[in-house]
Amino acid sequence: MMLGGIIGIEREFRAKDAGFRTHFLVSVGSALFCVVSQYGFGEEMKDASRVAAQVVSGIGFLGAGMIILQKNVIRGLTTAAGLWVTAAIGLACGSGMLLVALIATTLVLLGLEVLHCFIPNMGSSTMSLTFTSPNKESVMEVIEKLKKDSIELSSYELRSRHTSAGETFEARIDIKARKGHNHSKLMEYIDEFDNVNISCIE
Questions:
Q1: Closest Cα partner for 91 from 38, 169, 21, 45?
Q2: What does the alpha-carbon distance between residue 89 and residue 192 come to, in Å, rounded to a whole number?
Q3: Which helix (DSSP H) or strand (DSSP E) does residue 116 occupy?
Q4: Which end of the chain, N or C, is more open, meaning fewer C-beta atoms within 10 Å of its C-beta?
Q5: What are φ and ψ of residue 188, in 5° steps?
């Protein structure tokens, strides 16, 4: 419970759906399955490896539930992998391999938190940007400027609507960029255009 809960606390800190309770339940459940497989059926029917194999495959349904496709972006892979390795840590504890479980927990936290702080700009991230403008040319200028800065557009949607002030164009774009690009940098792009207003960045 303690080792799985530590990983869950890290996920809670990152505001993930599977947090402390989910991770410690997976860890305790895996350990219990392992203990039952070793001591619950007597020496003649002892087959710890069979139950352990079922835990490894069975944890997949929780992992699959964490992985979602949202706005053309796959989310939840890290949390699903965290649940998977938490089950392995629980099995190690149930088998009496406490030192191995402790080392594995340390490595998981090292990969999730410590390395994340040291190498935050590796890889890419996806953000959705919605902005409005009274003319279509300004929208296209913003998009071209984003492309010139090596920001990849994964999807693009443009809508026009009529208001009391006239026609307004609303653009929604999903962009994939280096992790160094953040919300403030996107806002700096938009600030260069007087007739473009940001509606949402997520």
A1: 38
A2: 51
A3: helix 115-118
A4: C
A5: -65, -40
